[in-house]
Design brief:
- With about 700 residues, the chain is of the alpha/beta class.
- Keywords: Membrane, Transmembrane, Transmembrane helix.
- This is Glutamine amidotransferase domain-containing protein.
């Protein structure tokens, strides 16, 4: 029963004041002059005032509200170490049992660390989960919070949390844990291909561990060195980036006995390899309509350093002009093809024919350059079918096809072969999806016999038009037409000459994206995505090894000719090994070197400050203390309801505050000066005053 008195005036307060103020003044004057009947006049005034004020007795029926208590359970991956999951489950069950005895508590259990979002899996964000649990609760109803965690919380505030209630932390694990880990101190995001890259790393032990340890250094899955590192000190590291695009540098140390986990015994750095400017030597033969097509294309690429020579005056040309009056530059044959040939990434012969400009021995040097890893492109014109063809020199050993001597002058649409539809150089070429292709015609094809390598484009009468071949460690491409300039000039709408020529050049220079057989994998969020380029019809499933060593397979589905894709949702953060046939790839899922595994030793330090600031405390679940109640192998403190001003923690108990808030269910209303009772009292007071005044 909650009784209270309320007033419900019959007239407004200003009007009530105007009525009662003069009467009160008269009553007071009567008292001052001690007139007869002053007491009765004052009583009559009180009765009139009570009638006008209309006092009401209220009886409220209220229901007490419960205090809201949040139990935040850490389900992050670091909680899977050792007995922590078991301790967590037992502590949660024990707390629920204890809290269930108190009807004044509304218990909300929140699990954190199991979100699908990668950024939430890589960090333990318990205070974010706590804020969500109390989002719809007024501050006066917050009874407190209990966190069950290993203490590695990455969003812990430095001071008091945003709610005025006790915060308690129950720490899993034990205080004798040890763990050794490795991390990168300085790891650049980019590096030049083939150049040494400076990095630093550190091996960290627990309890100020000292000594040295062997560190295995791997680049893209292949071990390149073993370094000796001093524990606790920043160590220098120098690695060479092997190729363009994504490269994975991995450091690994052996686990020590009784170590918590070996997950953080590896550190990953993702480095994008960048090529220095590619050096291309372009040698043009007799001037022709498309002579500048290759030059303009290569000059427009900022990553290409072009050296271009055009043979305008061959040695056999004798016109009587004195040498000192010629403004032509002598062709530096020895410097280019003997001394500096290894410096070039690509050599292009554009309608070049043998005219004694190059000594015959130099063609042998070019063939050797290709055999040892160089790249050669032949843009063939009618000269290739003639008596002065470079196919009649020692360069023939590097060429993918020998000329028949036939030059076919016939209009045709360049088309992709069946192999060309799958080959990354020509796959998806703009305009190739229609019949006829959506580009202009060409009018000349050079006949060849016994072509080697892969014919990815065909010309008139299905003759080979573009050949791509491997010779030793190098590569050779051959365009069997000199009509590409028609696309560049926009004849009949032109064609994708820039796209095609650039792909050819990059394939010859071994760009990874244009490899026929290539396996790549990448992590996007918590998804592992796999891409397989192949010339086969079915590469089969991909085999995956997770960071924890589990094996699984993923089916690869055909996305387009020569490309198969697969994906799988993962639950682990770390380095995944992907294999298909003889190809292997590495992919890192989740943020690199995630904070979740940076330090996995359970600790009381991170939550001590915010807990003590709210009047709570931090204690371990696994301890030998006899205080408290033992439940399933963990020591749980007793739960005690406390008032807002009382202590909230002790040696063997934790306090949760109760609230005084309530909700109104019903109200009973009894007027005190209403009805016949009020009228009778008013008449009695007035009659008494009249009677006393009349005597």
């Amino acid at each position: 029963m909650n009784l209270s008195l309320a007033f419900e005036p019959l007239i407004s307060w200003p009007l009530l004041g105007l009525v009662l103020a003069p009467l009160l003044l008269l009553a007071l004057v009567g008292f001052w002059f001690r007139q007869r009947g002053a007491v009765f006049r004052f009583a009559a005034l009180l009765a009139l005032g009570a009638a006008l004020l209309n006092p009401v007795l209220l009886d409220e029926e209220r229901e007490a509200l419960k205090s809201v208590v949040a139990v935040v359970v850490d389900r992050s991956q670091s909680q899977d170490i050792g007995e922590r999951t078991k301790q967590t489950d037992e502590a949660l069950a024990g707390l629920q049992q204890r809290l269930g005895r108190f009807k004044q508590f509304d218990v909300r259990v929140v699990e954190a660390g199991k979100s699908e979002a990668a950024e939430e899996r890589t960090e333990t964000r318990l205070f974010g989960a706590l804020e969500s649990a109390f989002r719809d609760v007024p501050p006066s109803r917050i009874g407190g919070a209990i966190m069950i965690t290993d203490g590695e919380v990455h969003d812990a505030p430095g001071g008091t949390p945003d709610f005025n209630a006790p915060l308690h932390a129950l720490i899993t694990g034990n205080d004798q844990e040890k763990d050794r880990r490795i991390r990168f101190e300085n790891a650049p995001r980019f590096g030049l291909v083939g150049k040494p890259l400076e990095m630093t790393y550190r091996v960290i032990g627990t309890n100020n561990e000292a000594g040295s340890v062997d560190v295995r250094v791997s680049v893209n899955g292949e071990q390149v060195s073993v370094e000796q590192a001093t524990i606790g000190q920043a160590m220098p590291l120098q690695v060479t980036i092997p190729g363009a695009g994504r490269n994975i540098v991995e450091l690994a140390i052996d686990p020590e006995p009784d170590e918590l986990t070996d997950t953080n015994n590896r550190a990953i750095a993702l480095i994008d390899g960048i090529r220095e400017n590619l050096r291309v030597l372009l040698v043009s033969g007799e001037p022709h309509a498309g002579e500048r097509t290759w030059r303009n294309l290569l000059k427009s690429d900022a990553s290409v350093d072009l050296v271009h020579f055009t043979i305008l005056r061959p040695p056999e040309k004798q016109d009587g002009t004195p040498i000192n009056e010629l403004s032509l530059i002598a062709f530096p044959t020895r410097e280019l093809f003997v001394e500096k040939i290894k410096d070039f990434d690509l050599i292009i012969f554009d309608r070049y024919q043998h005219r004694d400009v190059l000594p015959i021995l130099y063609y042998d040097y070019i063939a050797e350059y290709v055999e040892k890893g160089g790249a050669l492109l032949i843009a063939a014109g009618p000269e290739y079918a003639g008596e002065s063809s470079i196919a009649r020199t020692p360069l023939m050993s590097a060429l993918p096809a020998m000329p028949t001597g036939e030059v076919v002058d016939k209009a045709f649409y360049p088309r992709l072969t069946e192999l060309g539809q799958r080959h990354p150089v020509t796959r998806g070429l703009d305009g190739s999806a229609t019949e006829p292709p959506h580009w202009s015609r060409w009018f000349r094809t050079i006949g060849v016999e016994n072509p080697e390598g892969e014919a990815v484009m065909k010309g008139a009468d299905n003759r080979p038009l573009l050949l791509l071949d491997r010779k030793g460690e190098g590569r050779v491409g051959m365009f069997l037409s000199d009509q590409g300039w028609l696309w560049a000039r926009g004849f009949e709408g032109g064609g994708p000459h820039v796209q095609l020529y650039r792909r050819i050049a990059h394939w010859l220079m071994k760009e990874p994206e244009l490899e026929e057989e290539r396996l790549t994998a990448d992590g996007r969020g918590m998804m592992l995505e796999i891409r397989r380029q192949t010339m086969s019809d079915d590469p089969g499933p991909a085999q995956i090894i997770t960071p924890s060593g589990k094996a699984m397979t993923v089916k690869l589905e055909r996305a387009e000719p020569g490309v198969f894709l697969g994906s799988i949702e993962t639950s682990e953060i770390g380095l995944y090994q992907v294999g298909n046939g003889d190809l292997k790839a590495l992919a890192h899922v989740g943020p690199v070197n995630a904070p979740e595994f940076t330090d996995v030793v359970s600790t009381e330090n991170r939550l001590k400050a915010p807990a003590e600031a709210t009047g709570g405390g931090v204690r371990r679940l696994a301890q030998s203390s006899t205080l408290g109640n033992l439940t399933g192998g963990v020591t749980l403190p007793s739960v005690v309801p406390v008032r807002s001003s009382g202590a909230a923690a002790g040696n063997d108990w934790i306090g949760l505050r109760t609230t005084d808030d309530s909700v109104l269910k019903a109200v009973s209303r009894v007027p005190l000066f209403g009805g016949f009772l009020g009228l009778g009292l008013l008449l009695l007071a007035l009659g008494s005053m009249w009677y006393r005044e009349g005597r």
